[in-house]
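Hi Y.,

Following your request, here is the sequence exactly as I used it, all 317 residues.
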Amino acid sequence: MDSIEKRLSLDNVDMLSFLGFNDANLKMLEDRFFSKITVRGNVAILKGTQDDVETVEKVIKEMIYVLNTHGNLRTSDIETILDLTSEGKEIISSNEFDSIILYTKNEAIKAKTAGQLNYLQTALKNDICFAIGPAGTGKTYLAVALAVAALKKGTVNKIVLARPAVEAGESLGFLPGDFREKIDPYLRPLYDALEDMLPSEKLKGYIEKRAVEIVPLAYMRGRTLNNAYVILDEAQNATALQMKMFLTRLGVSSKAIITGDVTQVDLPSKTTSGLIEAQEILKNIEGVGFVYFEKADVVRHKLVKDIIDAYEKQRSM
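Below is the corresponding structure, written out as C-alpha coordinates. Let me know if you'd prefer a different format.
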Protein backbone atom coordinates (compact mmCIF):
# COMPACT_ATOMS: atom_id res chain seq x y z
CA MET A 1 0.00 0.00 0.00
CA ASP A 2 1.27 3.49 -0.85
CA SER A 3 2.80 5.61 1.89
CA ILE A 4 1.44 9.07 2.67
CA GLU A 5 2.72 12.03 4.69
CA LYS A 6 0.63 14.25 6.97
CA ARG A 7 1.59 17.26 9.09
CA LEU A 8 -0.13 17.83 12.43
CA SER A 9 0.11 21.13 14.32
CA LEU A 10 1.12 20.86 17.98
CA ASP A 11 0.20 24.40 19.06
CA ASN A 12 -0.41 25.01 22.78
CA VAL A 13 1.42 21.81 23.69
CA ASP A 14 4.14 21.36 26.33
CA MET A 15 6.52 19.55 23.99
CA LEU A 16 8.76 18.08 26.72
CA SER A 17 5.80 16.43 28.44
CA PHE A 18 4.27 15.38 25.13
CA LEU A 19 7.43 13.73 23.74
CA GLY A 20 8.62 12.20 27.01
CA PHE A 21 12.23 11.59 28.07
CA ASN A 22 14.30 10.85 24.95
CA ASP A 23 11.06 10.86 22.89
CA ALA A 24 9.87 7.77 24.78
CA ASN A 25 6.19 8.61 24.20
CA LEU A 26 6.59 8.76 20.45
CA LYS A 27 8.52 5.48 20.46
CA MET A 28 5.50 3.83 22.09
CA LEU A 29 3.43 4.91 19.10
CA GLU A 30 6.01 3.78 16.56
CA ASP A 31 6.25 0.39 18.26
CA ARG A 32 2.49 -0.07 17.92
CA PHE A 33 2.01 1.25 14.38
CA PHE A 34 3.88 0.99 11.08
CA SER A 35 4.41 4.73 10.91
CA LYS A 36 7.36 7.08 11.19
CA ILE A 37 6.82 10.11 13.43
CA THR A 38 9.14 13.12 13.19
CA VAL A 39 8.68 16.31 15.23
CA ARG A 40 10.08 19.60 13.97
CA GLY A 41 9.29 22.59 16.13
CA ASN A 42 5.56 22.47 16.79
CA VAL A 43 4.72 20.20 13.85
CA ALA A 44 4.51 16.40 13.86
CA ILE A 45 5.20 14.76 10.48
CA LEU A 46 3.50 11.38 10.12
CA LYS A 47 4.54 8.91 7.39
CA GLY A 48 2.96 5.53 6.70
CA THR A 49 -0.08 3.92 5.20
CA GLN A 50 -3.23 6.03 5.17
CA ASP A 51 -4.95 3.86 7.81
CA ASP A 52 -1.94 3.96 10.15
CA VAL A 53 -1.39 7.70 9.72
CA GLU A 54 -5.05 8.42 10.45
CA THR A 55 -4.90 6.24 13.57
CA VAL A 56 -1.67 7.82 14.80
CA GLU A 57 -3.17 11.27 14.27
CA LYS A 58 -6.16 10.26 16.38
CA VAL A 59 -3.88 8.93 19.14
CA ILE A 60 -1.77 12.10 19.16
CA LYS A 61 -4.89 14.26 19.48
CA GLU A 62 -6.04 12.11 22.40
CA MET A 63 -2.60 12.52 24.03
CA ILE A 64 -2.75 16.30 23.61
CA TYR A 65 -6.24 16.37 25.12
CA VAL A 66 -5.15 14.38 28.19
CA LEU A 67 -1.94 16.40 28.62
CA ASN A 68 -3.55 19.80 28.32
CA THR A 69 -6.60 18.92 30.39
CA HIS A 70 -4.81 17.19 33.28
CA GLY A 71 -1.40 18.87 33.10
CA ASN A 72 0.58 15.65 32.66
CA LEU A 73 0.81 12.62 30.41
CA ARG A 74 1.79 9.32 32.02
CA THR A 75 2.89 6.11 30.32
CA SER A 76 -0.29 4.50 31.64
CA ASP A 77 -2.35 7.23 29.95
CA ILE A 78 -0.74 6.49 26.58
CA GLU A 79 -1.26 2.76 27.05
CA THR A 80 -4.95 3.39 27.80
CA ILE A 81 -5.30 5.58 24.70
CA LEU A 82 -3.61 2.92 22.55
CA ASP A 83 -5.83 0.17 23.96
CA LEU A 84 -9.01 2.22 23.45
CA THR A 85 -7.96 3.06 19.90
CA SER A 86 -7.32 -0.59 19.07
CA GLU A 87 -10.87 -1.32 20.28
CA GLY A 88 -12.29 1.44 18.09
CA LYS A 89 -13.05 3.68 21.09
CA GLU A 90 -12.12 7.33 21.63
CA ILE A 91 -11.79 9.76 24.51
CA ILE A 92 -12.72 12.57 22.13
CA SER A 93 -13.90 12.51 18.54
CA SER A 94 -12.01 14.30 15.77
CA ASN A 95 -14.86 16.80 15.48
CA GLU A 96 -14.69 17.47 19.21
CA PHE A 97 -10.92 18.01 19.05
CA ASP A 98 -11.34 20.51 16.23
CA SER A 99 -13.86 22.45 18.35
CA ILE A 100 -11.47 22.94 21.30
CA ILE A 101 -10.42 26.57 21.77
CA LEU A 102 -8.46 26.56 25.02
CA TYR A 103 -7.27 24.08 27.61
CA THR A 104 -7.54 25.07 31.27
CA LYS A 105 -6.48 23.17 34.37
CA ASN A 106 -9.99 21.81 34.84
CA GLU A 107 -11.42 21.46 31.35
CA ALA A 108 -11.13 22.02 27.65
CA ILE A 109 -13.14 25.03 26.53
CA LYS A 110 -14.79 24.18 23.23
CA ALA A 111 -17.63 24.98 20.89
CA LYS A 112 -20.70 23.07 22.11
CA THR A 113 -23.24 23.85 19.39
CA ALA A 114 -23.21 24.21 15.62
CA GLY A 115 -23.57 27.97 16.04
CA GLN A 116 -20.58 28.12 18.37
CA LEU A 117 -18.47 26.04 15.98
CA ASN A 118 -19.37 28.46 13.17
CA TYR A 119 -18.36 31.30 15.53
CA LEU A 120 -14.97 29.67 16.17
CA GLN A 121 -14.31 29.13 12.46
CA THR A 122 -15.44 32.65 11.52
CA ALA A 123 -13.30 34.27 14.22
CA LEU A 124 -10.23 32.30 13.12
CA LYS A 125 -10.80 33.14 9.46
CA ASN A 126 -11.45 36.89 9.80
CA ASP A 127 -9.57 39.72 11.50
CA ILE A 128 -12.87 41.24 12.66
CA CYS A 129 -15.78 39.07 13.79
CA PHE A 130 -19.22 40.20 14.95
CA ALA A 131 -21.10 37.76 17.19
CA ILE A 132 -24.77 38.71 17.57
CA GLY A 133 -27.45 36.87 19.47
CA PRO A 134 -29.30 36.30 22.76
CA ALA A 135 -27.85 35.94 26.23
CA GLY A 136 -26.34 32.61 27.20
CA THR A 137 -24.97 31.65 23.78
CA GLY A 138 -21.32 31.95 24.81
CA LYS A 139 -20.52 35.02 22.71
CA THR A 140 -18.33 36.72 25.31
CA TYR A 141 -16.93 33.61 26.97
CA LEU A 142 -15.68 32.07 23.74
CA ALA A 143 -14.30 35.42 22.54
CA VAL A 144 -12.23 35.66 25.72
CA ALA A 145 -11.11 32.03 25.29
CA LEU A 146 -9.95 32.76 21.73
CA ALA A 147 -8.03 35.81 22.97
CA VAL A 148 -6.37 33.91 25.83
CA ALA A 149 -5.41 31.08 23.47
CA ALA A 150 -3.80 33.59 21.09
CA LEU A 151 -1.93 35.27 23.96
CA LYS A 152 -0.64 31.93 25.30
CA LYS A 153 0.39 30.87 21.80
CA GLY A 154 2.26 34.15 21.29
CA THR A 155 0.36 35.25 18.18
CA VAL A 156 -0.62 38.45 20.04
CA ASN A 157 1.16 40.36 22.79
CA LYS A 158 -1.87 41.64 24.64
CA ILE A 159 -5.61 41.39 25.16
CA VAL A 160 -7.85 44.44 25.46
CA LEU A 161 -11.42 43.90 26.66
CA ALA A 162 -13.83 46.82 26.47
CA ARG A 163 -17.46 47.47 27.38
CA PRO A 164 -19.66 50.55 27.06
CA ALA A 165 -20.54 51.94 30.50
CA VAL A 166 -24.22 52.42 29.76
CA GLU A 167 -26.78 52.33 32.55
CA ALA A 168 -29.40 49.61 32.28
CA GLY A 169 -32.03 51.18 34.51
CA GLU A 170 -29.37 52.39 36.97
CA SER A 171 -27.31 55.56 37.25
CA LEU A 172 -23.56 55.61 37.80
CA GLY A 173 -23.94 58.78 39.82
CA PHE A 174 -25.93 57.00 42.51
CA LEU A 175 -23.48 54.12 42.92
CA PRO A 176 -21.08 54.37 45.89
CA GLY A 177 -17.31 54.80 45.58
CA ASP A 178 -14.88 56.50 43.22
CA PHE A 179 -15.02 56.21 39.42
CA ARG A 180 -13.08 52.91 39.35
CA GLU A 181 -15.45 51.39 41.88
CA LYS A 182 -18.45 52.69 39.94
CA ILE A 183 -17.22 51.25 36.64
CA ASP A 184 -16.02 47.84 37.87
CA PRO A 185 -19.52 46.26 37.97
CA TYR A 186 -19.83 46.89 34.22
CA LEU A 187 -16.54 45.09 33.58
CA ARG A 188 -17.08 42.25 36.07
CA PRO A 189 -18.32 39.67 33.48
CA LEU A 190 -15.02 40.05 31.61
CA TYR A 191 -13.03 39.46 34.80
CA ASP A 192 -15.19 36.41 35.54
CA ALA A 193 -14.39 34.86 32.15
CA LEU A 194 -10.65 35.49 32.55
CA GLU A 195 -10.63 34.04 36.06
CA ASP A 196 -12.16 30.83 34.66
CA MET A 197 -9.36 30.49 32.13
CA LEU A 198 -6.19 31.64 33.87
CA PRO A 199 -4.69 30.90 37.30
CA SER A 200 -5.15 33.91 39.59
CA GLU A 201 -1.42 34.66 39.87
CA LYS A 202 -0.97 34.39 36.10
CA LEU A 203 -3.90 36.73 35.47
CA LYS A 204 -2.60 39.18 38.08
CA GLY A 205 0.80 39.18 36.36
CA TYR A 206 -0.76 39.79 32.94
CA ILE A 207 -2.79 42.72 34.30
CA GLU A 208 0.20 44.25 36.10
CA LYS A 209 2.27 44.04 32.89
CA ARG A 210 -0.70 45.42 30.90
CA ALA A 211 -0.72 42.30 28.74
CA VAL A 212 -4.40 42.13 29.71
CA GLU A 213 -6.47 45.31 29.94
CA ILE A 214 -10.14 45.61 30.86
CA VAL A 215 -11.45 49.09 30.18
CA PRO A 216 -14.60 51.12 29.50
CA LEU A 217 -15.08 51.71 25.78
CA ALA A 218 -14.46 55.46 26.15
CA TYR A 219 -10.86 54.70 27.20
CA MET A 220 -10.12 53.31 23.73
CA ARG A 221 -10.15 56.72 22.04
CA GLY A 222 -6.82 57.81 20.53
CA ARG A 223 -5.14 54.41 20.80
CA THR A 224 -3.64 52.20 18.10
CA LEU A 225 -3.46 48.55 19.11
CA ASN A 226 -0.81 46.44 17.37
CA ASN A 227 -0.33 42.69 17.98
CA ALA A 228 -3.44 42.65 20.13
CA TYR A 229 -6.68 40.73 20.51
CA VAL A 230 -9.41 43.30 21.10
CA ILE A 231 -12.92 42.46 22.30
CA LEU A 232 -15.90 44.80 22.51
CA ASP A 233 -18.63 43.29 24.66
CA GLU A 234 -22.26 44.47 24.93
CA ALA A 235 -21.68 46.32 21.65
CA GLN A 236 -25.39 47.05 21.18
CA ASN A 237 -24.82 49.83 23.72
CA ALA A 238 -22.07 51.48 21.69
CA THR A 239 -23.17 54.50 19.67
CA ALA A 240 -22.42 54.68 15.95
CA LEU A 241 -19.48 57.03 16.60
CA GLN A 242 -18.13 54.78 19.37
CA MET A 243 -18.31 51.74 17.11
CA LYS A 244 -16.37 53.51 14.36
CA MET A 245 -13.84 54.70 16.95
CA PHE A 246 -13.39 51.15 18.29
CA LEU A 247 -13.00 49.50 14.91
CA THR A 248 -10.41 52.03 13.78
CA ARG A 249 -8.20 51.28 16.83
CA LEU A 250 -7.13 48.02 15.19
CA GLY A 251 -3.42 48.00 14.29
CA VAL A 252 -0.97 45.64 12.63
CA SER A 253 -1.32 41.90 13.42
CA SER A 254 -4.43 42.46 15.53
CA LYS A 255 -7.84 40.82 15.65
CA ALA A 256 -11.17 42.02 17.04
CA ILE A 257 -14.39 40.37 18.17
CA ILE A 258 -17.52 42.43 18.75
CA THR A 259 -20.34 40.80 20.70
CA GLY A 260 -23.86 41.96 21.44
CA ASP A 261 -27.61 41.39 21.49
CA VAL A 262 -29.56 43.82 19.29
CA THR A 263 -32.73 43.14 21.32
CA GLN A 264 -31.13 44.52 24.50
CA VAL A 265 -30.20 48.11 23.56
CA ASP A 266 -30.04 50.43 26.60
CA LEU A 267 -29.20 53.61 24.66
CA PRO A 268 -31.59 56.61 24.67
CA SER A 269 -34.48 56.04 22.23
CA LYS A 270 -33.20 58.44 19.54
CA THR A 271 -29.60 57.17 19.64
CA THR A 272 -28.55 54.70 16.94
CA SER A 273 -26.85 51.52 18.13
CA GLY A 274 -23.44 51.16 16.51
CA LEU A 275 -23.89 47.39 16.39
CA ILE A 276 -27.13 47.62 14.43
CA GLU A 277 -25.61 50.14 12.02
CA ALA A 278 -22.41 48.12 11.54
CA GLN A 279 -24.36 45.10 10.29
CA GLU A 280 -25.43 47.06 7.21
CA ILE A 281 -22.30 49.15 6.64
CA LEU A 282 -19.71 46.37 6.98
CA LYS A 283 -21.58 43.34 5.62
CA ASN A 284 -19.66 43.18 2.32
CA ILE A 285 -16.14 43.93 3.57
CA GLU A 286 -13.67 41.07 3.14
CA GLY A 287 -12.04 40.13 6.43
CA VAL A 288 -15.13 41.07 8.44
CA GLY A 289 -17.31 38.13 9.47
CA PHE A 290 -20.78 38.02 11.05
CA VAL A 291 -22.16 35.20 13.19
CA TYR A 292 -25.79 35.11 14.32
CA PHE A 293 -26.76 32.92 17.26
CA GLU A 294 -30.15 31.36 17.83
CA LYS A 295 -31.95 30.18 20.95
CA ALA A 296 -30.68 26.67 20.16
CA ASP A 297 -27.15 27.92 20.92
CA VAL A 298 -27.98 28.85 24.53
CA VAL A 299 -25.64 26.86 26.78
CA ARG A 300 -26.62 28.25 30.18
CA HIS A 301 -29.24 26.75 32.48
CA LYS A 302 -32.02 25.05 30.49
CA LEU A 303 -34.51 27.62 31.80
CA VAL A 304 -32.71 30.42 29.93
CA LYS A 305 -34.18 29.27 26.60
CA ASP A 306 -37.67 29.22 28.13
CA ILE A 307 -37.16 32.72 29.56
CA ILE A 308 -36.04 34.05 26.15
CA ASP A 309 -39.08 32.42 24.53
CA ALA A 310 -41.43 33.97 27.10
CA TYR A 311 -40.10 37.48 26.57
CA GLU A 312 -40.23 37.11 22.77
CA LYS A 313 -43.86 36.02 22.97
CA GLN A 314 -44.65 39.01 25.18
CA ARG A 315 -43.04 41.45 22.72
CA SER A 316 -44.99 39.94 19.79
CA MET A 317 -48.37 40.39 21.51
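Residues 167-179 have pLDDT under 50 and may be disordered.

Thanks again,
Q.
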